[in-house]
Amino acid sequence: MEKDSAMNKSIFNEWKFPTVIILMLAGLVVSKWLLSLSQMILFILIITDKGGIRRQINAFKNPLVLILISVFFLHAAGLLWSDDISYGFRDIRNKIQLLTFPAMIAAIPIQNKSKSVIILKSFVLFMGLMSAINLVRYFTIPHSSDFQAALWHSHIRFSIMLCFSMFSLLWLFVRKFIAKAELIPAILLMVISGVSLIFLESFTGLVIFGLLLPFSALLHRKNIRNKSLKIISVVILLIISLGFIYTVYSVKSSFFPNTAPVKLNEVEKHTPSGNVYKHDTISTLNENGNLVYLYICREEIEQEWEKRSSMPLYKDSLWQGNILIRYLSSRGFRKDSTGIWQLTEQDITNIENKIPNYRLENIDPVRKRLYMFFWELNVYKNSNDPSGHSLTQRLEYWKAARLIIEENFWTGVGTGDVKAAFAAAYQKMNSLLDDEFRLRAHNQYLTFWVTFGVFGLILFLFSILYPVFIVPQRHNILYIGFIFIFLLSMLNEDTLETQVGLSFYALFNSLFLFVLISKDFIHPTLKK
Question: Is the separation of the CB atoms in 162 and 196 below 8 Å?
Fold first, then answer.
């Protein structure tokens, strides 16, 4: 009995830290509650472990830990030149994981190769299962057009983690950590993750994945010794790159070819029924080359649409017919009674489903996302109003950030005054953004510069890049890939301003630097 008890205690002590790390990764993917609970469990395990308190104290003496947690204390220091202290304290509370993750994880014993691989495989599995659940829901539940609905957090953050999950799975393949019995499930996970990334339609995720492909080939070049395989890899990457370039060009040229404004004396003034057309001869917005705001007779549209559909064109006295007008334009029909009756029943269904262009009915998600991107650019070009368009809104965010930086170059506005500074900048710019869309920079580098000035930005970059060039883990392809993905994500997102983005960075960065540092993770040839 005593022998069994001792054995159980030994197994518990051996697996308690890997298990709680796996719970944290599960929480990162599926549940904020589980993520918070697992952090509490980790703290209890550390302080009750033999030598745990000593390791925790030593963690705060570790120069690398001090560099990482300096970013948290930078936020605390930012209160000194802030007016809105309450907002600043909320921001500091949200950033607490920049302190707790490095400090606690540095106090965990280093894991051996087998446990490190299991931890990594667990994350890949959680991401694959979540993706599979979403795919099943999307294809089996009628009218389930929102692929993002099954996620408990932003589809952008999920797409970033998907990129890292697939990169990790590729690394496991190359390093031969995938057993024969795991080969088929691993390939299936890779396919599911790739398909999910496409259906998420995250522009950030797709761009990161596109850049990650050649970067992965560069990192793994020394692991591929067969010359023929190297040539094949280069050819495949070249084909993918050229295919993407062609796709971008074809979407732009076919959906939104360049069009010139039409002169008013060149257009007809009346419908076949004798009603007056309205024309905007300045706008170049078009669908498939057909100008959207020419030949519009709302009187006839409203009258005939009621006969063909139960979908109202007014909601709370506001006109809701823009999708209809764009769809008619995509067909090359005029926006009058004749155009309405030229629509097929399938066209009516498409319009009711908010499809603005008939060619989008069966289009793949990548081309659909590119279509949306070019449409947003066209709207911004014609109206200078990016409201409601995620990509072009960022252009306005960056303009506001630049204005704030110009006025607060050295010290920034402080932790508590970021929101107020952006509100003032939008006012000063006379921005056309609706109030609900007047947000922060959506670029983490600009956000740090706005908040803490140029020296704060330098400290932040130092905390990220110092380990890459100094610690032995700089030879770890997996760690380098993680940092590459994280740095890219911050170009288009305030990655550290959300719990998921913050946890993803702080957790994995700490794991790679303090726990998953088995020498087997580092390929010998990379040290040469």
Answer: yes
